Every structure is written in C-alpha cells, then in structure tokens.
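FAQ

Q: What does a record look like?
A: Structure on top, sequence underneath. For example:
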C-alpha cells in the first residue's frame, strides 16, 4: 500500500513538468516567431512555393502532360505564400530569441546572428510591402536592349524569347512600334494551350507574396488539331495597372494563376528569364518614349 501511494505522488509531481515542457515546445512553433525567421530569409519564399507545387505533383498517380508546364518549372493549384499588413503589425518590434534556434554555433556565428537580430527588420526598410509604381530612371540603353527584341509583320515589338504561336504558353509585355512614330500603348499578352479548355476570365499575379488581380477585357478561344484548346488575351495596360507593371518588372518571384469559369485554376511559376523579359520590355518601351 505504501508503494502505491509513493508512485501516485511521483505521477502527480511529473505531470506538470511534462505539460510545461510541451508548452515550451509549442512556443517554439509560434507562427509569429516563424514569420520572424522567414523575414530574415525572404529568398526562401519562392523555394517554398515551388516545393508545394512539387509535393502536389508527386501526389498525382499519373500527371497529365500539359503544355502550360515547362521543363524547369511546375504548375499546380496550391496556395502560395502571402504577406499582409496584419502580419507586419504582429511581428514589428518583436525580436527572435536566439536560444530558440536549436543549433550549435561558434562564438563568431553567434555574434553574427546577434548583430542581425539587433537590426530593425521592418517591412518598410526591406521592401516587404506591396510594390507600387515608382518612376525610376532607366539605366540601360536602346542599343543594349534592342538585340533581345523582334518586331513582327504586324509591327508588334516583344522579346525574341517568346512565341506568338497558339500552341505556346506565354505571359509577356508587348507594344506596337510603327515606323517613325511613338510606340503604342504597353500591353499584356497571356497565352494558354492544353488538352482541356480553361475559359479563364481573371488572372491573379502573386508577386513576392502579394496578389495583383488582372481582368482581361476579351479572352479569345480556339480549338486546334489534336484535341488542343487555345486561349489568349491581349490587353492595354492602363494607368490602373501601373503597380502591376512595376511589380512584374522588379519582382523576386512571380506565380500566375489563371482563374477558370469551370472551377479549375492553373498556377505557374514564371522563370527568371520571363521576369527579366518584363523588366527589359518596360525599359525599352520607356526609352522609346512610351508612357503608361
């Protein structure tokens, strides 16, 4: 009987200790703390988005071949990382506890980490805000940019690395370039081709974690041989979309989501080359005298 009472006393003393240990572990996983870590490494956001797409693709028994896909990037329907002003307010003024990073460090590494944690990592200083139009000077020249562009028979100027073929999936800037005159308005052209119709009527650009919705005025559709469906839009980028234009040309990563009226939405991560084309096309357009 005496042994039973002794074991009960030990159990009563051990239970609060175990609960406190669990609480500390949960505190280590506090989402606010984790956001603080992410803000120290904004370059990880694009990698996380790609990883989510890869995980989704791996769950498919036999993924359908889709021309919207490319060899070096994946498409899917997963949610992408976002940032909000609410997150900013929750994190602002809070410092990450270095003892919550359970890794061994040399004194030099710990000193370096302490110096980083002592900095003011507000969204304002490090650009973690939704981008808006800034009239920055163009630092390149027409002679430097022009070898990367072509002008087709219709007079449209666009990157030589994109295709206007209906079976090609593209997202890019273009503008008319008549001879001996100012360039026409800057336009956004989106091309989709696959073995299933999409009927997209809205495009959401997720740029560095922030959504920029775009509403094409007209989406044209066509049926191609081989059971393919081609859809495309070609819209003038008016002043209301200046923030989108600037963000596409100055992005760290971009995901494009085509919103379908059929309830199936396609997501694609743009390549570094596609993002560079946005920046170069905007620069060339402005150098030639174009204005938004």
């Amino acid at each position: 009987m005496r042994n039973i009472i002794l074991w009960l006393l030990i159990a009563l003393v051990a239970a609060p200790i175990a609960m406190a240990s669990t609480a500390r572990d949960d505190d280590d996983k506090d989402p606010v703390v984790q956001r603080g870590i992410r803000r120290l490494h904004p370059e990880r956001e694009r990698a996380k988005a790609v990883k989510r797409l890869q995980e989704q693709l791996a769950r498919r028994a036999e993924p359908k071949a889709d021309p919207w896909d490319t060899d070096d990037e994946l498409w899917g329907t997963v949610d992408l990382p976002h940032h909000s002003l609410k997150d900013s307010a929750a994190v602002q003024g809070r410092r990450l506890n270095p003892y919550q990073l359970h890794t061994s460090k040399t004194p030099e590494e710990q000193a370096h980490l302490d110096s980083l944690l002592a900095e003011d990592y507000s969204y304002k200083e490090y650009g973690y805000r939704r981008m808006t139009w800034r009239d920055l000077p163009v630092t390149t020249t027409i002679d430097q940019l022009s070898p990367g562009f072509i002008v087709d028979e219709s007079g449209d100027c666009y990157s030589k690395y994109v295709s206007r073929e209906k079976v090609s999936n593209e997202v890019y800037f273009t503008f008319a370039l008549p001879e001996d005159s100012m360039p026409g308005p800057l336009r956004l052209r989106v091309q989709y081709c696959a073995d299933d119709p999409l009927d997209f009527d809205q495009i959401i650009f997720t740029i560095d974690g922030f959504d920029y919705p775009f509403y094409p005025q007209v989406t044209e559709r066509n049926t191609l041989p081989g059971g393919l469906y081609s859809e495309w839009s070609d819209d003038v980028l008016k002043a209301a979309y200046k923030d989108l234009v600037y963000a596409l040309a100055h992005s760290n990563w971009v995901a494009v989501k085509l919103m379908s009226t059929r309830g199936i939405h396609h997501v694609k991560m743009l390549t570094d080359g596609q993002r560079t084309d946005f920046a170069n096309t905007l620069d060339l357009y402005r150098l030639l005298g174009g204005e938004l």
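Q: Is there anything notable about this one?
A: The chain has a mean pLDDT of 76.
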